[in-house]
Amino acid sequence: MKIIGFIFMILFSLSFFAQKSAAEFEMHTPIVKAAITQGNEIYQEISFFNGDKTADFFIAKINGGGFYEIEDSEFAVESNSYGSFRVKLGNNELMPGVYTDEVSISSDKATKKIPVVLEVESKGDVVFDSTVEVLKRSSIYAGGDFFANVKVHNLGSTYDSVSVTYSIKDLAGNIIYEEVEVLNVREPVQIGKSTFLPIDIAVGTYIFSVIARQGQSYACATETFSIVDNPSLSPSAAEKDYSKLIGFFVILFLIASVILLSYYWNKRVFSEAKDWRGKIDELKKTKFSDTAKAISKLKYQKTILQKAYARHYITKQSYLSGTDEINALIERLKKRL
């Protein structure tokens, strides 16, 4: 029973740690993204679910972007409850363009980040507009190809030419790729843009943006995408971290060892108990011709009986009845001396 209890304790511990890791808070707002006209501002709410115990949460800008403000940067959320906070995007000082950052949401157990993207367009009527679609036929790797479809629309401008800037930026605002071209847009124009990503570009979230400019008119379009590890450039199988897999097999081995040990130990106990019972039965049937030798043997058998009882190979009732019979035989033989 002790062995079974030990196994149950191991399994319970594994289940407990699995539940503990699964209890981290979950984000319900994957990204903060907005488009405004220059000089305006907009509020957005970010929410998450706290599946763990009541905890304090801390909200912070990762790169200190000045294009937005966080309200309620520190607050408590009860267990199994929703938490939320607001951000104000935009201010009077922002020029037309695309602004990026990240917000971190932290508790004492975990930290999660979400992108913040703000598109600021010029005041007045925008005479051109654009849409963006990043092609994700498969994962986008460092050192791999990047493809995007771009559509540019003339919204009524008497000028057909428009300057279009294409760029890829990380969330800190660092430019990875940038290209400028002038398009003749009387009717909607659709073009494909492609580039090779740097081999040393970090894994993470990036922004592909298109800014169409004609005079003082600015129109923006963006789309986020993720860069993942390139399997052809990742460490070889021999260098990969197999610690979790090894840990699993170690635990499996320990459980199997405990089960086998329990089986062979019980088998040994039953075997030795059977031998002890046989010796006791033999003792009961023994007839002695030599009184002194018989008494000596009885005392020895009594010692054996005491050891068997001390090791729990026989029951208390068997021990007491066996001891009484041996004592009676010894007393009977002593009278013959």
The portion of residues forming beta strands comes to 35-45%
SS-based structural class?
alpha+beta
How many strands, what sense, and barrel or not for the largest sheet?
Answer: 5 strands, mixed
- Through-space gap between termini: 50 Å
Key descriptive features of the protein:
five-stranded mixed sheet, Immunoglobulin-like, 337 residues, alpha+beta, 3 domains, rod-shaped
Short note summarizing the structure:
The chain is α+β, with helices and mostly antiparallel strands and 337 residues long. It contains four helices and 17 strands.
Description:
This protein is of the alpha+beta class. The protein folds into three domains: 24-120, Immunoglobulin-like (Sandwich), CATH 2.60.40; 122-232, Immunoglobulin-like (Sandwich), CATH 2.60.40.3880; 244-334. 31% of the residues lie in helices and 39% in strands. The chain contains four helices and 17 strands. The protein has helices spanning 2-22, 243-285, 291-310, 316-334; strands at 26-27, 32-37, 42-50, 55-61, 68-70, 74-77, 81-89, 97-106, 111-121, 128-134, 140-141, 145-154, 161-170, 175-184, 189-196, 204-214, 217-228. The strands form four sheets. Strands 2-9-8-4-6 form a five-stranded mixed β-sheet, with no helix packed on it. A five-stranded mixed β-sheet has the order 11-17-16-13-14, with no helix packed on it. A four-stranded antiparallel β-sheet has the order 1-3-7-5, with no helix packed on it. Strand 16 and strand 17 form a beta hairpin. Helix 2 (243-285) packs antiparallel against helix 3. It is rod-shaped and about 140 Å long. It starts with a helix and ends with a helix. Residues 16-22 have low confidence and may be disordered.
